[in-house]
Design goal:
With 327 residues, this protein is α+β, with helices and mostly antiparallel strands. Helix content is 24%, strand content 23%. It folds into two domains: 26-233, no CATH class; 235-327, no CATH class. It has helices at 2-23, 177-184, 197-200, 213-219, 244-255, 284-295, 313-324, and strands at 60-62, 75-81, 103-113, 117-129, 132-140, 147-150, 154-161, 167-174, 185-186, 189-190, 203-206, 209-212. The chain has a six-stranded antiparallel β-sheet with strand order 1-2-3-4-5-6, covered by helices on one side. A two-stranded antiparallel sheet has the order 7-8. It is globular, with a radius of gyration of 20 Å. Residues 2-26 have low confidence and may be disordered.
Length: 327
């Protein structure tokens, strides 16, 4: 019994070290952009009128995700801009097939910043060029009328009131170009993370009505018309009416699986957190103690490894509840 106890302690202590080593080991091909991004976000004509109002321009569509990435309690606007006359084509429940020239934009902001009101922090772009995705980040200026291309990241002090009513003071981290590449890589290519069909397949409010988002985008001509009845859906992990297991797996899918799956940045670890992976093959049961520890502390071994500077307390509570119920 004593030796078993020591073995468990060794596993808990050694796994984080092995993980960090494996994630930072050499042998990965560098992924570079195949295009030169413009210096100003306004050059992409994503917004109509004053940029700070974030009103999508003609030909630019808002889309929402059922389960979303946690980024220090930031709010986000997601846009997609397709070349005129082009459409996305569904490819099962995974990522659609995007036409050449597609632009996907995600803007991060806080609605209630002390003495400021809403403050827009950054916009990240993915652009498909010659069948390859390219990534860049734009930092919004103090006047909130423009955003400038940056590559080296930045730390932005933010004093804000969250949507949960709690006031927080953080140092928001705008990622470096290499950090963007780390999360978005699949083998030796970049891919979008969020807009998989299963994560778009839920009802949204449009024109005062509730409508399936895929159906709505088909009506708008953004997605080529097709059958969606048989497509799976990624649950909204905030929805407490859904079983805990489904919610927790959805949370780990959007927050962790971009790295923890075959071909991801941490694909050589013992975890595969893709929502479609059978529990017995995820590695969750083997790693459950380590998962709780890593998500519930900041520092070198914190998970998610990139994109957060504070702990997602609600997310950690969900994971704990799920893992505590596993046999």
């Amino acid at each position: 019994m004593k030796y078993k106890k020591y073995s468990i302690i060794i596993v808990v202590l050694v796994c984080p070290i092995v993980y960090v080593w494996s994630c930072n080991s050499s042998g990965r091909k560098n992924i570079n952009n195949g295009i030169s991004f413009k210096a100003k976000l306004s050059s992409y004509q994503l917004f109509k009128g004053e940029m700070a109002k974030l009103k999508p321009n003609d030909g630019v569509e808002i889309f929402e995700l059922a389960s979303t990435l946690f980024t220090d309690y930031a709010e986000k606007q997601r846009l997609i801009k397709l070349p005129k006359g082009k459409q996305m084509v569904l490819n099962g429940a995974g990522l659609p097939i995007f036409p050449e020239g597609t632009i996907i934009a995600k803007t991060f902001y806080y609605s209630k910043v002390a003495k400021k009101g809403r403050e827009i922090i950054e916009t990240r772009l993915l652009i498909l060029h010659q069948s390859k995705w390219n990534v860049a980040t734009f930092r919004w200026n103090a006047a909130q009328n423009e955003a400038d291309l940056i590559a080296d990241g930045a730390a932005i002090p933010i004093d804000f009131m969250g949507l949960d009513g709690e006031r927080r003071k953080i140092s928001y981290h705008i990622p470096t170009k290499q950090e963007c590449v780390s999360c978005h890589r699949q083998n030796d290519e970049l891919i979008p993370i969020g807009p998989k069909a299963r994560n778009l397949n839920f009802n949204v409010e449009r024109g005062g009505e509730s409508i399936n988002q895929l159906s709505y985008l088909m009506k708008r001509g953004v997605i080529k018309k097709g059958k969606i009845d048989s497509l799976t859906k990624l649950p909204n992990y905030h929805d407490t009416s859904i079983p805990v297991g489904q919610r927790a797996r959805a949370y780990m899918d959007i927050n962790c699986a971009h790295c923890h799956q075959a071909g991801g940045f941490a694909g050589n670890t013992t975890l595969n957190l893709d929502y479609r992976t059978d529990l017995d093959h995820t590695g969750i049961s083997f790693n459950k103690s380590n998962i709780v520890i890593r998500t519930n502390q900041m520092g070198e071994f914190h998970m998610p490894k990139l994109g957060t500077t504070v702990i997602d307390r609600e997310g950690v509570a969900l994971i704990k509840r799920y893992i505590s119920g596993l046999k």
